[in-house]
Amino acid sequence: MVDEINITWHGHSCFTVEAGKYCIVLDPFADGAVPGYADIRLTANEVICSHEHRDHGFREGVTLTEGPDNPFTVESIKLPHDDAGGSLRGMNEITILSAGGMRVAHFGDIGCMPEPEALRKLTGLDLAMIPVGGYYTMEPEGVLSLLEQIKPKVVIPMHYRTEAFGYEVLHTLDDFLSERDVVIEYDSNRFTLTPDTPAQTAVLRYMG
Predict the structure, then answer these.
(1) Is 127 among the domain residues?
(2) 29 in a domain, yes or no?
(3) pTM for the whole thing?
(4) Residue 103 and residue 176: Cα distance in Å, rounded?
(5) CA dist 144 → 43, 112, 139, 178, 207 (Å)
(6) Of 27, 107, 125, 176, which one's alpha carbon is 20 to 30 angstroms from that of 150?
(7) Nearest CA-CA partner of 68 in 103, 101, 20, 100
(8) How many structural domains does the chain have?
(9) pLDDT at residue 89 above 80?
(10) How many C-beta neighbours within 10 Å does residue 147 have?
(11) pLDDT per residue over 1-19, tens digit each?
(12) Domain holding 104: CATH number?
């Protein structure tokens, strides 16, 4: 029985999501693709990429191993990477992972507001990993509007810039966090979600 989901941030949009002893890596980035981040070298039972750009689709950085049965139900929502129907940057997939009655979603490089049917599927998530840096994705104000509609309990921001890492064209966290009610900054890159986890925006620390 799954009673918690563990999430580890490896920088940019790359996460490991674990339930029981089953491990999924999401959106690993290629060596040198994103300034300031160490190369991705991970081990997992599965890898899922929202799209095939170098900063999201580096499957070669993940060594796959056999493991226990997959406790996750996986659902994907395809939508444009941009606000021009995908004509600028192609398509992107949101991945929803469900286990133990909890639902977590990785939004990849979401570039536009989802259609009503997709919004319905995304409503009431327990946790959302979502890009907040704009430029290549929805701008911070658009992300805030989306979150207001779907109301995830926990939000983990990703795909942004600091003085130490990230693309120069991206926003820092400031604009996004200034509009969030409960912000908790962690001294770790790891977050544990349980059914009792309180609502919050969880800022994880990049550990290198």
Answers:
(1) yes
(2) yes
(3) 0.95
(4) 23
(5) 33, 12, 9, 11, 26
(6) 27
(7) 20
(8) 1
(9) no
(10) 20
(11) 789 999 999 999 999 999 9
(12) 3.60.15.10
Is 55's pLDDT higher than 70? yes
Q: Is residue 208 part of a domain?
A: no
- Summarised one tens digit per residue, pLDDT across range 90-149 is 679 999 999 999 999 999 999 989 899 999 999 999 999 999 999 999 999 999 999 999
- Quickly tell me which residue has 């509007």 as its tokens: 145
Predicted local confidence at residue 91, as pLDDT: 75
- Can you spell out the DSSP letters for 6-54? EEEE-STT-EEEEETTEEEEE----TTSSTTPPPP-EEESEEE-SS-ST
Can you give the length of the chain in residues? Answer: 208
In the sheet where 91-99 sits, what is the strand order?
A: 73-80, 91-99, 102-106, 127-131, 154-158, 200-203, 183-185
Range of the domain at 47: 5-203
Does some domain include residue 94? yes
d(CA 193, CA 176): 22
Token pair for 206: 């990049």
